[in-house]
Write a structure and sequence with these properties.
Length: 304
């Protein structure tokens, strides 16, 4: 017999398909070439059960959904005080690419906007093979499989990402970044260009729901206090200038990416992932936001 959870997801998928609002991101040229029809939903429970419908195994780039994971790795590597000195935890209420640096100190408002995320990347301790390889290996642990780069998206982003490069140089001028910013921004572009599927993202989200332990592999990636911090910042800032509306209507920590992915986390219980490329004015997937809102309402997942 088909699981009632799967039947429910099929219903949400069929309903979500009717919504054709929004458009795929075009400011990274390669992302503008993705089919707006693609649409997948995955759920993973904190005890390792997974459910999926639609294009849940179609690869796309993780983009800003990388930010909470790199922030978590930076906290594990450097500790809370060192990270807090370089990036704040206040919602900016501004767009993801805003030059949102505190006057005087240059400290980005939070690690979910690009400025703060570039700082998190700079704080990840490189392994022998380099900083990006460390990030790639850690994300692979969260997903439970070996992730790899979309070379096309990386090159597309690198050849058009002047604003992020400018943010890197500004952060260097304030001393928030203490080395040459250009390889750090390059590693940030690579982290954003790692390919995942909705299925992978649901397991990454379920790892956060399961207090930092991948529920399928059993590997511990983050400590409890780091997960608590990461989820708090996702709750206040993960959806950028749409964060207030999100927390009011969905009530779960979440993170979106301009590749069309969204993750949401019900601590102790479930990781949700949705993939649908058309975005709203905040850079969040239109269908992704709607599916999460319905899930939260129907399954009473609204917990804050
Ligand atoms: O830095 C950028 O602009 C992209 N690599 C990531 C932006 C993003 O995903 C914003 N989220 N919705």
């Amino acid at each position: 017999m088909k699981s009632p959870i799967l039947s429910y997801l099929e219903y949400l998928h069929a309903e979500g398909k009717q919504n054709t609002a929004g458009a795929p991101a075009a400011y990274i040229p390669e992302l503008g070439r993705v089919s707006p029809e693609l649409f997948g939903i995955s759920l993973a429970t904190a005890d390792g059960y997974t459910y999926e419908v639609g294009d849940a195994r179609h690869p796309f780039t993780i983009q800003s959904i990388s930010k909470p994971f790199s922030y978590g790795i930076a906290l594990m590597d450097q500790g809370f005080d060192a990270v807090d000195r370089k990036v704040d935890v206040e919602p900016s209420g501004e767009a993801f690419n805003e030059i949102s640096l505190t006057a005087g100190s240059g400290r980005p408002r939070n690690p979910m906007i690009n400025a703060g995320a570039i700082v998190s990347t700079s704080l990840v301790l490189p392994e022998a093979a380099g900083r990006y390889e460390r990030i790639r290996a850690a994300y692979s642990g969260f997903a439970g499989r070996d992730l790899s780069l979309s070379q096309e998206v990386f090159e597309s982003e690198q050849s058009s990402g002047y604003r992020n490069l400018a943010l890197g140089y500004l952060l260097r001028s304030f001393g928030i970044i203490e080395e040459d910013p250009s390889p750090i921004v390059e590693d940030y572009f690579k982290q954003c260009s790692l390919e995942v599927t909705c299925h992978d993202l649901s397991i990454m989200a379920a790892t956060l729901a399961n207090n930092g332990v991948n529920p399928i592999s059993g590997e511990r990636l983050l400590t409890d206090d780091v997960v608590e911090r990461v989820l708090s910042v996702m709750g206040t800032s993960g959806m950028y200038d749409g964060a207030g509306n999100w927390i009011t209507h969905v009530g779960m920590p979440a993170k979106s990416g301009v590749g069309g992915g969204i993750i949401a986390v019900l601590p102790g219980q479930i990781g949700v992932a949705v993939f649908s490329p058309p975005l709203d004015e905040h850079g969040n997937s239109v269908r992704g936001v709607e599916v999460c809102r319905r899930l939260s309402q129907d399954l009473q997942m609204h917990f804050v």
